[in-house]
Amino acid sequence: MPLALDHRRIGDIAVVTCAGRLVEGAESSALAQLLDELLPFGPYVVLHLGALEFIDSAGVGLLVRYSTRMRHVHGRMTLCAPSSKLVAVLKATRLDRVFESYETEGEAIAAFYERAATADAPSRLSRTEVLCVLESPDVQAYVREIVGRNGYGVLTASNLPDALVLLQATGPKVVVLSAGFAQVCGTNAAEKFRRRVDGLSVIELPVDFSQRDSGGAAQWLLDRLRTFIPRS
Hints:
The chain has helices spanning 26-38, 57-72, 84-92, 105-118, 137-149, 160-170, 179-183, 188-197, 214-228; strands at 4-10, 13-22, 44-55, 76-80, 101-102, 130-133, 154-157, 174-177, 201-204. It is of the alpha/beta class. The protein has a 5-stranded mixed β-sheet with strand order 1-2-3-4-5, sandwiched between helices. Helix 4 packs parallel to helix 6 (160-170) and helix 6 (160-170) packs parallel to helix 8.
């Protein structure tokens, strides 16, 4: 099976899912190109290898090369759900010292934030005060810029499972919810999310937030945010 790649962001972490065969040639080049495209947005990558059927020596070499490259810029690339065969190969070649491996995406992402909280090296992962859970990528971008440029550490998520991972990994003080997510109920993820935010400060955006005057919408959000986390 040819290599199939997919990716999404969970907070500042890029999660790249690899399925099929990672071998020298077009497959390795495709992964290298994707990693090159993701790096400018942050050198923090989780490679999900649960559906990877085969990896050759050149493929492992590519992973080593990008892992080293990310460490040089104070980032990291970790592996998620590697096969027992790949784990055995890494141990036999002592390359297990190059990679950190985790069973789940949640564990891998939590490890990024746990390390950043205690590391001396500079990291944009080290402080999260506000988590915004919003469906619209445009509203996400708008809210993140508003909140971040007013001095708050902020992350965004576009679905409840990813938001749960970030809640557990970062422990924000305030959660900003779209009206749609605030009304979701009945699903397993929704119930877990509600239990997790119980006791946290929550700001629910009005249904018409995205259609409001941009200045007025920003001021509305900041006024409410400052009631929970004052800024001078």
